[in-house]
User: What shape does this take?
Amino acid sequence: MTESELITLNFKEIRRRSIKLWRELPEQYYYWKPDQEAMSAMEMIRHVVSADHGWNTIINKGDMSNYRSPWEGRPYLNLDDELEFAKPHRQAFLDSVRKFSASELATTEIIHPGNGQKRKLGDYLLRTGYHEAVHAGQFLSYLRAMGVKRPHIWD
Assistant: This one.
């Protein structure tokens, strides 16, 4: 298995577990949040799935100065709608990751537009996976606070 295939597998496993968590969210809790400053449960789901489009733009050296998310102005309907809308963006991101060689992962410099930090592409990609994993942990705490059954994700 190549480095890019391993990274892609990791992304797929993280997303599989995220979806397992999200599927436990009852509709009446879509807009629940632990406090006024926090994202609602649905906002967090969208935040995670919409990030793929931004990551893909960044790793392909796209211009982020006037970035517009495809989700901009899109109403929140339900989890299946969010996942379906995200599907082509997720696929494009995974396809981009798969095409990188070991040399590109080790030498290509990525500058994150939000904070200006410079990272090698492989490191940057692993951090994007960590981003989603952190939100999975956050979502688990949301489910606990809601009193909702939490699925076993450690398979």
